[in-house]
Write a structure and sequence with these properties.
The structure is a single chain. By secondary structure, this protein is an alpha+beta fold. The protein has three domains: 7-120, Butyryl-Coa Dehydrogenase, subunit A, domain 1 (Orthogonal Bundle); 125-230, Butyryl-CoA Dehydrogenase, subunit A, domain 2, CATH 2.40.110.10; 234-392, Butyryl-CoA Dehydrogenase, subunit A, domain 3, CATH 1.20.140.10. It has ten helices and ten strands. A hairpin with a 7-residue loop joins β4 and β5. α1 runs parallel beside α3 (65-78) and α4 (80-103) runs antiparallel to α6.
Length: 405
């Protein structure tokens, strides 16, 4: 059984499938050599997929979250690392596009047109070692200077910086009026003070090349500070432009990796006596059910984002619901691949076959933001009616928002 898609979704998925099949042939070499798949990005560019989420009137495909999620899943079936890397470009552009459609903001339009023209590739770089990546604080410092700020700090898990031209990042402005603020900034990766450190040597997702990014007094003009909020607060704009989009995007990628593992396993069983074994049928059936459960939850979330019903229940619940999607999809994906080990047996352990890489890639899912522990705590607190952090709601969000006790 394949997912039931609209004609427009199916067309995009079919195009993604042609790319994914090529990426699958290259994935083992990039995994082995710990290298970034630049040629995959060129294929994505030529196919127009780097402007997938840019509005049609600005030169893109105009894909919404409903079209983007199945495309990311299909790409991940071929190579999870490539899919995860390009997610860091496609998802932010989709976030901006959704805001632009509502506000017609000229600065967002300029960024989106640059992406459509191929002059901008994005990365989202907010993670720091020793600090939970929940978009409420940062160890990177922002210092006020004439015309803007300088940023100094070191970011980890900087996925897509091997090919990105620009990135969004975070910094803490200690001297802000009313108390410390988290600044959300945009920087060019070729400007002075930006350095990528080759630190990526991991068990899985090796092709993402999620190296460290060091910032040394990097100048950010005032107009490139796109948002700010009091530290240690949940913020409505961050919910709308990060959590609501990133969580289903990550969910689609890891669902795709597991779906790729299932598809590969089914091909090995096709036409063989083992396919008639009820125990094997039980395992394959369970794996399919888990993937369909993830897809159903992603679909529900996409509908809640598209209709903006996600935001009607408050900021904390909106973040919790976003975290729930990613938690379920990630853990279902891990369970699928682990169950398939029982089916495949010792062959699952050999590097000569792609399953072993998929098994390693899927392990990154449960600690990527929002990680399992953080998600369970937030979801549990929300169910119990416990406020985890003060909230800046939609009526208050922006540079004038003030901290709450």
């Amino acid at each position: 059984m394949n997912p039931l898609l609209t004609a427009e979704q199916q067309d995009l998925v079919d195009q993604a499938g042609k790319l994914a099949d090529v990426f699958a042939e290259r994935a083992a070499a990039h995994d082995r050599d710990n290298t970034f798949p630049f040629e995959n990005y060129e294929d994505l560019r030529e196919a127009g997929f780097l402007r997938l989420s840019v509005p049609k009137e600005l030169g893109g495909f105009g894909a919404t979250l409903a079209e983007i999620a199945p495309v990311l899943e299909r790409l991940a079936m071929g190579d999870g690392a490539t899919a995860l890397a390009v997610t860091m470009h496609i998802s932010p552009l989709g976030q901006w596009a959704s805001v632009w459609r509502r506000t017609q903001n000229p600065r967002l339009e300029q960024l989106l047109r640059k992406a459509a023209d191929g002059d901008l590739i994005w990365a989202s770089v907010t993670s720091e070692m020793g600090l939970r990546n929940d978009m409420t604080d940062s160890r990177t410092t922002a210092v006020k200077v004439p015309g803007g700020f300088t940023l100094t700090g070191r970011k980890s898990f900087a996925t897509n910086t091997s090919v990105a031209t620009h990135c969004s990042t975070t910094a803490r402005y200690e001297e802000a009026e009313g108390g410390p603020r988290l600044m959300l900034c945009q920087i060019a990766l070729d400007q002075p003070g930006v350095k990528v450190h080759q630190t990526w040597n991991t068990m899985g997702m090796r092709g993402t090349q999620s190296n460290d990014l060091e910032l040394t007094e990097v100048f950010v003009p005032d107009e490139q500070v796109v948002h700010s909020l009091p530290v240690n607060h949940l913020d409505a704009r961050v919910l709308e432009t990060v959590w609501a989009w990133a969580m289903p995007a990550f969910s689609a990628v890891y669902t795709g990796v597991a779906a790729g593992a299932l598809e590969w396993t089914v091909r090995q069983l096709s036409g063989r006596p083992k396919a008639n074994d009820p125990v094997i049928q039980d395992a394959i059936g369970e794996c399919h059910i888990l993937l369909e459960s993830s897809r159903a939850l992603i679909h529900r979330h996409v509908e809640e984002v598209t209709t903006r019903r996600l935001y009607d229940r408050g900021v904390q619940e909106g973040v919790a619901r976003s975290a729930l999607v990613k938690y379920v999809a990630s853990n279902n994906a891990v369970q699928v691949v682990q169950r398939l080990v029982d089916v495949i047996g010792g062959a699952s352990y050999t590097k000569a076959l792609p399953f072993e890489r998929m098994w390693r890639d899927i392990q990154a899912s449960t600690f990527m933001p929002m990680g399992n522990l953080a998600a369970r705590k937030l979801i549990g607190a929300n169910v119990l009616g416990v406020e985890t952090l003060p909230v800046i709601d939609f009526a208050e969000t922006g540079p004038d928002s003030r901290p709450k006790p």
